[in-house]
Amino acid sequence: MITITEAAQNHFVKLLSSQPEGTQIRVFVVNPGKPTAECGVSYCPADSVESADTHLKFNLFSVFVDPISAPYLNEAAIDFVTDELGSQLTLKAPNAKVRKVADDAPLIERVDYVLQSQINPQLANHGGRVTLMEITDDAFAILQFGGGCNGCSMVDVTLKEGIEKELLQQFPELKGVKDLTEHRRGEHSFY
């Protein structure tokens, strides 16, 4: 579920050495599955461990994860990075904002997961986003752009050279993607 590098484990051991005996680590997600999701790490005193918590054992300490956060921390990684600017603990959780779907989930769920977890974070750098509206009977993913993408002169390139290539590579059963948005007026044009 969570990978913790040796450097991060050593950092946790050092931090825990100044805490009351029995204190461990808790990893959690605030607002899991939402665009505002944020991950956190805190001390976990022995009396705050719940029976439903996932217990991850490491060499010299344990990590506890509450049942609501657990699915969103799948494939998470914690590292302790030191560079010329100093040291910091980093937590990367690619599934915090959207729950990972099973490989055998319906195509629409798998495509939406890739859009939410891989495509939208890139579009968000430019203030944009894309939403999957449907997958047609003839295997086209119908998308609607929003935010900074609506009216952008590069949206056709983003659609065909970025999003479509990525989706077709991951989902060979798709024939392509179509844009539902009329970018000049910000209205729907596909239907």
Structure explained in plain terms:
The chain has 191 residues and is an alpha/beta fold. It has two domains: 3-92, HesB-like domain (Hypothetical Protein Aq_1857, Chain: A); 107-184, 2-Layer Sandwich (GMP Synthetase, Chain A, domain 3). It is 24% helix and 34% strand. The chain has helices spanning 6-16, 107-124, 155-170; strands spanning 2-4, 24-30, 38-44, 54-57, 62-65, 76-83, 86-92, 128-135, 140-147, 176-179, 181-182, 187-188. A four-stranded mixed beta sheet has the order 3-2-5-4, with no helix packed on it. The longest helix has 18 residues, at 107-124. The radius of gyration is 21 Å and the shape is elongated.
Question: What topology does this entry show?
Answer:
Blueprint: E1 2-4, H1 6-16, E2 24-30, E3 38-44, E4 54-57, E5 62-65, E6 76-83, E7 86-92, H2 107-124, E8 128-135, E9 140-147, H3 155-170, E10 176-179, E11 181-182, E12 187-188
In a nutshell, what does this entry contain?
With 191 residues, the chain is α/β, with parallel strands linked by helices.
Structure keywords:
3-stranded mixed beta sheet; single chain; GMP Synthetase, Chain A, domain 3; iron; 2 domains; alpha/beta; 4-stranded mixed beta sheet; disordered C terminus; 4Fe-4S; 3 helices; 191 residues; Hypothetical Protein Aq_1857, Chain: A; 24% helix
